[in-house]
Amino acid sequence: MSLDTPIIDDIGEEIFALAAKIYPFCRSITGNGVRQTLREVGAHIALDIHEVPTGTPVLDWTIPREWNIRDAYIKNERGEKVVDFNQSNLHVMSYSVPVQQRISLSELKQHLYTLPDQPDLIPYRTSYYAENWAFCMPHRQFETLRDETYEVLIDSSLTDGHLTYGEFLHKGETADEFLLSAHVCHPSLADDNCSGVALLTHLAKRISRLRTRYSYRFLFIPGTIGAITWLARNEDHLPRIKHGIVVSMVGDDGGPTYKKSRRGNTEIDRAMIHSMRHSGLSPTILDFFPYGYDERQYCSPGFNLPVGLFQRSKFGAIPQYHTSADNLEFIRPEYLSESYRLIAETANVVESNRIYCNTVPKGEPQLGKRGLYGAIGGDKDAAVANMAMLWILNLSDGMHSLLDIAERADLPFAVVQRTAELLREHELLKPLESF
Amino acid sequence: MSLDTPIIDDIGEEIFALAAKIYPFCRSITGNGVRQTLREVGAHIALDIHEVPTGTPVLDWTIPREWNIRDAYIKNERGEKVVDFNQSNLHVMSYSVPVQQRISLSELKQHLYTLPDQPDLIPYRTSYYAENWAFCMPHRQFETLRDETYEVLIDSSLTDGHLTYGEFLHKGETADEFLLSAHVCHPSLADDNCSGVALLTHLAKRISRLRTRYSYRFLFIPGTIGAITWLARNEDHLPRIKHGIVVSMVGDDGGPTYKKSRRGNTEIDRAMIHSMRHSGLSPTILDFFPYGYDERQYCSPGFNLPVGLFQRSKFGAIPQYHTSADNLEFIRPEYLSESYRLIAETANVVESNRIYCNTVPKGEPQLGKRGLYGAIGGDKDAAVANMAMLWILNLSDGMHSLLDIAERADLPFAVVQRTAELLREHELLKPLESF
Amino acid sequence: MSLDTPIIDDIGEEIFALAAKIYPFCRSITGNGVRQTLREVGAHIALDIHEVPTGTPVLDWTIPREWNIRDAYIKNERGEKVVDFNQSNLHVMSYSVPVQQRISLSELKQHLYTLPDQPDLIPYRTSYYAENWAFCMPHRQFETLRDETYEVLIDSSLTDGHLTYGEFLHKGETADEFLLSAHVCHPSLADDNCSGVALLTHLAKRISRLRTRYSYRFLFIPGTIGAITWLARNEDHLPRIKHGIVVSMVGDDGGPTYKKSRRGNTEIDRAMIHSMRHSGLSPTILDFFPYGYDERQYCSPGFNLPVGLFQRSKFGAIPQYHTSADNLEFIRPEYLSESYRLIAETANVVESNRIYCNTVPKGEPQLGKRGLYGAIGGDKDAAVANMAMLWILNLSDGMHSLLDIAERADLPFAVVQRTAELLREHELLKPLESF
């Protein structure tokens, strides 16, 4: 198996194309935007769509009413749309209640959000659990609004309905699972998280064609309430999750960034960090903190799953974050491809990570008689070439995994794994479980 | 309870005034100077005075004879007092035996101490356990002594009597104790330790008016022999001591400095370090070493109590140490006040430190429906405002105390403690013992 | 006992003289060069010589045929010896099979080794386990070879015989052993390892005249196959080995370097590092890695002995390594003497390292009444002078060895050890086993 050999060469382009396709949809934590998005994902993989009715209790929460929107605008006295939902779905605060009225500028201002420090950008705002309505607009435009009467329309609905999420399971040789999770609740924000949804779709597509040791579960869910819903409905299932990664913002030119699981030294943490450190990039590794994406839910103390967060730029740390500048120009195929490769390599590490035992643990085995060693001693380069073999033989005492050895020897996991295969063919290694 | 809200605003001035009042007394490890000092302390708090007879065995030691002094001088041939005890009690080596005789300069020099590198200062010298007498004087003056005959008088007495120490106990809700200890054996040295005696007196006064969880025991004792005496007489009592701080040199402009207990990672060590790190100052943290003040006795291997040392400048590390330059100009109300605040805050930390359990450990609780969360999402500042809540909920798994959480979250303890109270009011936290 | 007081003052000269005497012999992993070398070692100590027959199985290996060589040369058409074994035994690849033939330059070049980057040096090459023959020569000379026919002679033999190694045991008070091991298989390479053989010989000579706690076992063995042979023949014996050091390259001006045992924090590791850190030199400390000298075998996972590697320059890291530049000018008596002292001091540390218990653990003992303390307090230097006593008393709680205390107090072990003796004489310390 080699997860990091993409199904196609231009995997970055493919991921970008899907991200671009779903970018215009007006997603929220419920509603048709999510359904539209999952339909596009489902065009690539056999996605299960779940619909959970409004009012269903989920852990400490309750599924809210479903929100949909058809149109919205602010018209001035001359009938000009000074703000138009059709131009950008960020213009309307998510979960805005329906409104149609004529109001003064001063009243209108109670319902306007801008970013004075980034006067050309539209901010992204939500009000899921408090009934309200608002428009978001560039501060520069806001400053030109005249003191007149405006016609305001938000043609939305907030009604009993469903919360929708998508799930894809690839069955591996074992029931142990690798969880990959992306949020699908943000409207037109390309990096956060059209990029993550598109990347996981193509990774799932690739994995679905491979024989794997682990089963791989992909979740395309609304942030927070979606993760809580899935956790509530799958509580008995959680012990099977051995590794997990939340992905978001995987297409920009920053990072890469990895935030460790709450446990902090799990195999997924070590595998992800190893892949990033040997990537030639300069990764940022963060200890767990209880703010961010759905790792907050997976790592809540009652679950404490081994789930980290992979990103390129760290959320909140860049000016484009949660603004209209997080658009399709902000993400690039080359970065999507690199993110794909890092996650696939990490999956390769945990797929291949094993504890072996040296079958000749007393003294070094004679590699030469097995054709494993340069027969001419004294060559200054021989040491380097043979180091992987010597490290594996020396540390394969039933207590060190291949990843432990790769870390200790400061060698790429792939080198250690290939060398271990060679030693195993020569019966110098046996898996721990064979003893 | 809020120990760090001083009983009066100008606490530094009050501490300074008491330090100044006791500064002139000629203290030693026994004698009337100690009694005079404890009388002044007793004017503020209900101090118990203990008198332990000469000859009493205490651990490996024996209470020595009591030393008192009335007068001392060196007169030259013209009858001029070239050294006069009434000018400074540092002029006579502590525990000097009585002497009255006429001697040559060369004989006299056998009994003179000076500081050639600090020629204007009088050194502080003692000879508690070897019978001897000596004068201490500025080196510059020493160099002007003519080769003539001198009349030497030390009107002291070294007789069977008592060792005297003071003790004050504030009873809290539990019998678990917080020990605070200051030495009262140094003569006119303002920072070392009139400052410490005065600070503890006012802290005791403040605490005596509060309801506290811990009981607070204050010791005003002669260095070394006093601590050994108290330990010998209270050995059965020691398991009650959960936290302790020795204070000395708390009024100068250096530090602050904290020397950890021998155990090195006790709650008092962590609480004191936390308070200092969040003070806006630049504290120096030292690992335990077996030289210093009475932490040497409290932390001897047979007791190994959780007791650290708080100072501003580190003893021995400043030129004023154990010289006449350690006078009332060397200490300042503002530094005394700051030291008071740091110790009081530390007491607050251990008073309030608890382990709580999150009552909604699976997923995050919905803070919004309890009015605990900004209802409008997407605000970049919301994360900051809610971090304390999220950290406490995430780490309150029955294994992390509030101090653990404050350290991990890098938040001031007071913020964590107040936030925990709020969450407890909303029944999102329960103390560990309630489960 | 004081191992670091050499038997003679000019120990470095003595070691050098022995290294110089054995330098010319043509050693390999078997053969008369090894026997000649061991005879010189045996002139100083009562060495046991072991002969193990060809074909004997040893762990995963088999004793190879014995190799000896009498002469070798390359003659040009004018009968001139362009390469002559009698000039340097490095000219012939070790274990070259016999050959006598006339060949063209192009054929000859298949059997020539040079160092293009170090054109004046002869490289050192071996081919123990693959039948072959070759000459080694300076690249500058290689470039002058004319295209003509050459007469090639290697008058060697490769026949059933023996592998030879030497062993010396000094019996101490206990059967617990300190292992010291040097390889004797390199031909004329002065630092690697005539220096190590000569140093261990003189250390053994010194130790043989002392009463020691540990027994000391010295091995003079061919690299790899010799260590494997000794391990195979002494497997039941290995649990007695409590400490061990492999020595090689101990006469050059680099380092010193210490590579830790595989376990990484054994007493020998800590003792060696302590001695080096307090030597006034700038030691390099390396974590274990599975390439190098015979520590590879001693630290194989099935044995995992507490054996480190002491060197001056790190092998492979200097241009002289495995070339004709590793000659008698490359090693110097002063460096040999320094290496001797570091190893002897390390042996002293483990000889004297004990856990003591303070007999007066409650409070400090009164040192003054025992004459152990400066009676005049207040002297700023008194603290320094008494620190060793205070550290030992404070940490001698049955859990800290003298080496632990020396490390914690940052004091030389010898100071701590002498001070512990003094405290023991005053019955303030008892060995742990006395309780």
Can you walk me through this structure?
The structure is a homotrimer of 435-residue chains. With 435 residues, chain A is an alpha/beta fold. Helices cover 30% and strands 23% of the residues of chain A. Chain A has twelve helices and 19 strands. Chain A has helices at residues 11-22, 32-42, 105-109, 139-142, 190-207, 225-233, 267-277, 295-298, 333-352, 382-395, 402-409, 413-425, and strands at residues 48-53, 57-58, 61-62, 66-75, 81-84, 99-104, 112-113, 135-136, 149-159, 162-170, 177-183, 215-221, 241-247, 257-259, 284-286, 307-311, 355-358, 397-401, 429-431. The first copy, chain A, has an eight-stranded mixed beta sheet with strand order 1-10-12-11-13-16-14-15, with helices on both faces. A four-stranded antiparallel beta sheet of chain A has the order 5-4-9-6. Chain A has a three-stranded antiparallel beta sheet with strand order 18-17-19. In chain A, a hairpin with a 2-residue loop joins strand 2 and strand 3. In chain A, helix 1 (11-22) packs across helix 9 and helix 11 (402-409) packs across helix 12 (413-425). The longest helix of chain A is centred in the C-terminal third of the chain and has 20 residues, at 333-352. The relative contact order of chain A is 0.14. Chains in contact: A-B, A-C, B-C. The interface between A and B is medium-sized, with 33 and 27 residues.
Layout of helices and strands:
Three copies of one chain form a homotrimer.
Chain A: H1 11-22, H2 32-42, E1 48-53, E2 57-58, E3 61-62, E4 66-75, E5 81-84, E6 99-104, H3 105-109, E7 112-113, E8 135-136, H4 139-142, E9 149-159, E10 162-170, E11 177-183, H5 190-207, E12 215-221, H6 225-233, E13 241-247, E14 257-259, H7 267-277, E15 284-286, H8 295-298, E16 307-311, H9 333-352, E17 355-358, H10 382-395, E18 397-401, H11 402-409, H12 413-425, E19 429-431
Parallel strand pairs in A: 7-8, 11-12, 11-13, 13-16, 14-15
Antiparallel strand pairs in A: 1-10, 2-3, 4-5, 4-9, 6-9, 10-12, 14-16, 17-18, 17-19
Helix pairs in contact in A: 1-5, 1-9, 5-9, 7-9, 11-12
